Amino acid sequence: MEGRLRLTERNYRYLFDNASDAMWVQDMDGNIVDVNRACAKLTGFTREELLGKNVRYFIAGDSLELAREVRRRLLTGEEMPQPYEQRLRRKDGTIATMMMSTSPVVIDGELRGFQHVARDVTEEKHMEENMRFYVQQITRAQEDERRRIARELHDESSPPLILLVHEVDALASSLHGIPAAIKNRLENLRGRAVEALEGLRRCAQDLRPRILDDLGLVPALEWMADNMTRDYGIEARVRLSGEERKLPEEAQVLLFRIAQEALSNIRRHAEASKVLITLDFHEESVRLAVRDNGHGFRRPKIIGDLAGTGRLGLLGMQERARLLGGSLTIRSAPGRGTTVEVEAPV
Amino acid sequence: MVKTRILLADDHAVVREGMRDLLDREKGFEVVGEASDGEEAIRLAIEFRPDVVLMDIVMPGLSGIEATRQIKEAAPRTNVLILTAYSDIRYVVGLLEAGACGYLLKSARRSEIIEAIRAVQSGESVLAPEVTRKLLERAVGAARGQASSGRAEVLSAREHEVLRLAAKGMSNKAIASTLLVSVRTVKAHLTSIFNKLGVGCRTEAITKGFQEGYITLDEVPSGETY
Question: Which of A100, A237, B25, B169 could join B129 in a cystine, given CB atoms 3.0 to 4.6 angstroms apart?
């Protein structure tokens, strides 16, 4: 019986030492009393160096604050979501990001310290940030490209056509007593030139609506709401609050695109009959919300997961919100409509 | 005959040339200047005090819309007609709110351009009734908590009548036959109304008259749906 028990202890010891996650135990003062190999690998110190060191040696600032909060919650029995994200400083001074779980060590009914299991997610974190940066760069580049092409259509392609239309008009009015057949052909020519011009305009308008740059965000939102009502029979309104002010061009475009994407989602998925777009101007921020009365959806816990569920548009909205320095919230439940909301410090 | 003095503002020289060519050949019109951007348009409008500015919206630097705002501030009697590629009602209303009295599509026929300038100058309507109505509906919202910009002189009963008929979208001729007076008399009334309200064209007179309480929204037909 005793032999089996010793074997189990050794077994646990083996598991502890060789686990791929970092583990360590600290006493009530934060001094490390036991560590495993993965912990040595994570921190860059040897196990001998780690034993007896205080955890404050590795964590500082916000991380220390977080550690205190975790400790407080565990002691008071308050809810503590686990694992949580924590950062520590390695021997070489670099910062590692970990997903951590912490639990109290109780011996003979007495609290003696804390034990931690931590997984190094620094690489994943970097990848995620790189990916986010990449998505943001693409979003910016796409917007620049759209604007450039729209401008080119206006500046380079339209004027010759306008001129052509005027020339045909001039020709038709300068010729007196010309045969009706020629007059008709001139009229057809004019019609075709106008058609081509309209085509260019529609194209430019789809890329970047002029109303946004010429009149600003509020008229552009109202215009979009009008179109939604007229073209899709979904009653859309814009409501303003606070004191309207002119926003920086980039912020204006990003907010417009978020609203545009939200309306496009409503059109395609929501089966809504009403949409309310609200724009609240606060002193140091702007809040845009698009609410519909459609059938709603069960949303994934993390918006990032939306890419996996084919709702890339929502991801685009989220990255635009980040570019604004704000955040995107989506509230939805089956049968209760959807609200997309972004608050940005502009 | 007094000539209608016109200023052209467009960043495309070829478009300006074509326009000048068209207007110069028209009796009673005189192109007094050409501007290639918003700042120049404002400067020339203040210098020449033209009757009408034909204004492009998209220009380098100051946009045609901002230029319109500033021109109307410095020279309220100068009328601005905006040349645009877009006629969406919300867009057009935005142009009018900036102070334009009407708009012309860039592909408009020569005859339409000439007619529009003449119409503006004789106090005729240059807008579809539904555009006027939308403009006034928005003015209802904007008027709240905001006193009207300058005090206007009181209109006579006859002038009030003419303004109400104008708001219905009636032409000068139709107003004349309703009131059993000549078209010339109607024009004289309109000129007097414009002077008293401190505006340059019918669009502005209706908006201002609405703000001053001479016209109610019920008197403006909603027109065809857009």
Answer: B169
Selected for mutation to probe chain A from B91, B97, B111, B138 (highest A CB count within 10 Å) is B91
pLDDT in tens, B179-216: 999 999 999 999 999 999 989 999 999 989 998 889 88
- B36-70 pLDDT tens trace: 999 999 999 999 999 999 999 888 888 899 999 99
- Are the C-beta atoms of residues B54 and B40 closer than 8 Å to each other? no
Torsion of CA A318, A290, B66, B133, to 10 degrees: 160
Which of residues 233 through 292 in chain A touch B, CB cutoff 8 A?
none
What is the pTM assigned to this prediction? 0.75
Cross-chain residue pair A214–B94, CB shorter than 8 Å = yes
Closest to B71 measured CA to CA, from B84, B86, B82? B82
A214 and B18 within 8 Å at the Cβ level: the answer is no
Query: In this structure, is the dihedral angle defined by the CA atoms of residues A36, A39, A44 and A49, taken in order, positive or negative?
Result: negative
Closest-CA residue to A229 (of A198, A261, A274, A199): A274
By C-alpha distance, the chain B residue nearest A163 is B15
Mutate to test the interface with B, among A166, A205, A230 (most CBs of B within 10 A): A166
